[in-house]
Write a structure and sequence with these properties.
- By secondary structure, the chain is α+β, with helices and mostly antiparallel strands.
- It has a single domain, classed as Beta Barrel (OB fold (Dihydrolipoamide Acetyltransferase, E2P)).
- Helices cover 31% and strands 30% of the residues.
- It is built from five helices and ten strands; from the N terminus they run αββββββαβββαβαα.
- The strands form three sheets. The chain has a five-stranded mixed barrel. Strands 4-10 form a two-stranded antiparallel sheet.
- Strand 2 and strand 3 form a beta hairpin.
- The longest helix has 13 residues.
C-alpha cells in the first residue's frame, strides 16, 4: 500500500523546472524577464532596469529607461520561439534561466546595449561586459543611474 501511495505521489508531482529547457513564443513583461508558455522567466546574470525606474541623462533630463528597454527587447525578440536553457528556481520561487537568440546570449546583449547591470551576487558572467559598456557610455551608462538593485530596495 505504501509503495502504491509513493508511486502515485511521484506521478502527480511534475519534474523540477531545472530539468528542462523551456521554449515557446515569448512576451516581454519587463526588461529582465520573458514570459514563455505562461511562465515568467528572469534572465540569468543581470539586474535589469525597472519599467518605473527613472534615469538622468547627462543633459539632466529624466527618462523612463526601463520602459524603453522592455520595448527594445520585445522588438529584438519579435514573434519567435525563445529557448530558456538550464532554468533554476531562485529566491521567492522565481524561475531564472539563460536565453539566447541567433547565437547571441540575451543577458550579454542587454548588457552590451547598455540596458542592464551585472548581477554580481548571483553570477560573475557579465561583470567584464558591464565594465566595457560603462566605459563606452552606452544608453543608461551615459548619465547618472541608480543601480537597479538599489532602486528596487529604495522603492
Amino acid at each position: 500500500m505504501l509503495r502504491l501511495v509513493l508511486t502515485l505521489c511521484q506521478l502527480l508531482v511534475p519534474p523540477p523546472v531545472s530539468a528542462q529547457t523551456i521554449t515557446g513564443v515569448a512576451s516581454v513583461p519587463d526588461g529582465g524577464s520573458v514570459e514563455v508558455r505562461g511562465l515568467r522567466i528572469r534572465l540569468h546574470g543581470i539586474h535589469f532596469l525597472e519599467s518605473r525606474q527613472l534615469w538622468t541623462r547627462s543633459s539632466g533630463q529624466r527618462w523612463r529607461c526601463g520602459r524603453e528597454f522592455a520595448l527594445t527587447l520585445a522588438d529584438w525578440i519579435g514573434p519567435r520561439n525563445v529557448p530558456c536553457m538550464t532554468p533554476d528556481i531562485a529566491r521567492y520561487g522565481r524561475i531564472v534561466a539563460a536565453s539566447s537568440q541567433d547565437g547571441a546570449d540575451r543577458s550579454r546583449w542587454m548588457g552590451r546595449a547598455g540596458w542592464a547591470a551585472a548581477s554580481r551576487q548571483f553570477s560573475q558572467d557579465y561583470i567584464q561586459n558591464e565594465a566595457e559598456t560603462w566605459r563606452a557610455g552606452r544608453n543608461v551608462w551615459s548619465g547618472r543611474l541608480m543601480m537597479p538593485l538599489d532602486w528596487r530596495r529604495s522603492s
